[in-house]
């Protein structure tokens, strides 16, 4: 009955950031998370939606909720942060929700970098932690440049291989710009995320043959065959090598699972994934004044923006510009989420 009532929420309704943060927090509290942890999850997922990354936004309440309800994720983890060296810490996430573990790691990295000028945090015992760019933005707003990565469920075949052995591990960079827009680069190691292929299947659309292969390793335009096959890495063998390096840092060095040791949240939703993340933060205030950094960042952007566009409709942009445009627009005018996501959030919140 509840689902029938809540799906009457029209997709034309624009919701404020504050309203979505409140609803998201209450929804994850309804799934058993303590208030502060629920707020951490909502903060990351709502930022993802504000960036326009809806496949990694509040719609994740579905997959997170299924695993919380099945016991595959610990709703009340005992997260432990351990000092390893003056600028190095390790976070044991105790199989908590990914954004909860991620926020613990981000706060630890900011604390260490604030003290030492640079800080590195490895996290283990985690799960899918959302996109990288929300963490990079939060760090940049506090004056920290960042390199952040996570490993993931295996969806990519080794270069020249015939089965999935490594994950579509995201990697992101952020550089603050005091008084202006930070640079934010957030990318996965495949040409596209599996979520885009699932969305194409749902819409009944074909996909480009550069996105994925079928189960035999042959490029395909059929999204269903692609979901049974493998994602294609960016840059061919170079993307394969980069994906391995992210997993070495996020999985192997953090003492988390890596490569095929990572459990699939689809195939084994009731088992811990033991994903790993890494956060490298630099306190840019140690390098120079905020005026110094702003001047150099604005000049950097101006050099790129000044390049004549080949297509007048597509001027040169810098990393994160599209997402930050969406963030400003959504904060000013609200954001629309699909009815199914709103219904699910309202049901959990109730």
From TrEMBL:
It comes from Cupriavidus respiraculi. Keywords: Oxidoreductase. This is Oxidoreductase YjmC. Gene3D superfamilies: 1.10.1530.10, Hypothetical oxidoreductase yiak, domain 2 (3.30.1370.60). Its EC number is 1.1.1.-. It comes from the Bacteria. One of its GO terms (molecular function) is oxidoreductase activity. InterPro entries: Mal/L-sulf/L-lact_DH-like_ah (IPR043144), Mal/L-sulf/L-lact_DH-like_NADP (IPR043143), Mal/L-sulfo/L-lacto_DH-like_sf (IPR036111), Malate/L-lactate_DH-like (IPR003767). The keyword Oxidoreductase applies. Belongs to the LDH2/MDH2 oxidoreductase family. The lineage of its organism: Bacteria, Pseudomonadati, Pseudomonadota, Betaproteobacteria, Burkholderiales. The keyword Oxidoreductase applies.
